[in-house]
Amino acid sequence: MKRIAILTGGDSVEYDISIQSAKTVKENLDNKIFDGIIIHLKNNVFKAHYKDKIYNINYNDFSFIYNNEKIVFDIIFIVIHGAPAENGKIQKYFDKLTIPYTSCDSKTSNLTFNKYKCNKKLKELGFDIPNAYLYSKHKKNNIEKIINKIKIPCFVKPNESGSSYGISKIKSVNDLTNGINNALKYSLDVVIEEEISGIEVTCGVFFNTKTKRIHKLPITEIRTKEEFFNYKAKYEGKSQEITPAKIHPILAKKIYGITKKIYENLSLKGLCRIDYIISNNTPYVIEINTIPGLSDKSIIPQQIKVADLSLKEVFTMCLLQEKN
Predict the structure, then answer these.
(1) Strand pairing report for 75-78 and 2-9
(2) Burial per residue of 103-134, b for 16 or more beta-carbon CB atoms within 10 angstroms, e otherwise
(3) Residue 13 contacts by C-beta under 8 Å, 6 or more apart in sequence?
(4) pTM of the predicted model, to two decimals?
(5) Contact 93, 109 (CB under 8 A)
(6) Domain coordinates of the chain in residue numbers?
(7) Tell me: the pLDDT tens digits for 129-141?
(8) CATH assignment of 132-194, given 3.30.450.40, 3.30.1490.20, 3.40.50.720, 3.30.420.10?
């Protein structure tokens, strides 16, 4: 039986969502193959939650002692959203220890977590993305220049954050200044991005170890009464998530093709989710989520269910996928 560390917690505003995701993973592991143990990370301290007690993890080899036995792990199932996982920092630690993990490696994670750099890379690869400007807290920025380039309305986003924290829709110059200040609470850099009007959809993807192929999950269409798919829409029931999306099959095929290419081109690994806005039949890539939410309100579990798969078998395939 393989011993799995379900790594949760972290230092970002997505902490609570990470805890919920870890619960989902723990409840849906195949206990005939895996022994899952929740490992909580906070302020660079690891704690193992095992047999209704908490044990300190030895940072030198990622182990703990239980009844005089040294407990080590075969693989890490990472469900930390935000830092230090989605930015790639924790992967470097596990690479040094040669312990495999379910998510993308450090280089890929670092790229995808940086919204501006990731979109720049996607544009170089020929994918359609919104025009954007990078506002840095430590550089001189010209608001007039920004407005001339991006135009209003637009969106302001923290460059390195998730779950829609700090995102604002901008309708005026005053809104822009306020939106930037709000986003700077979550990231040192801010992305000011043109508004793409259209249908918002998202597509989950993972590597199927049975077929040895990239497996695209059913596309979800997101409808919300909020101005955009913000935190309330995502986690407080303010949106309607339709799976499969009610879009033309040819358009769905196009999105599946783009999703597969991105997974390959960026060397993604494990369960990922790619968000799009469809405008004039063109899917614009909005964001890549390398460690998407897995709570009962999250999109990936919905897509897995519609695909007539179980969380158990998908988690098993993620754990069996060879480390890149």
Answers:
(1) parallel
(2) bbbbebbbbbbbbbbbbebbeeeebebbebbb
(3) 82, 161, 163, 165, 186
(4) 0.90
(5) no
(6) 2-103, 110-128+197-320, 132-194
(7) 999 999 987 777 7
(8) 3.30.1490.20
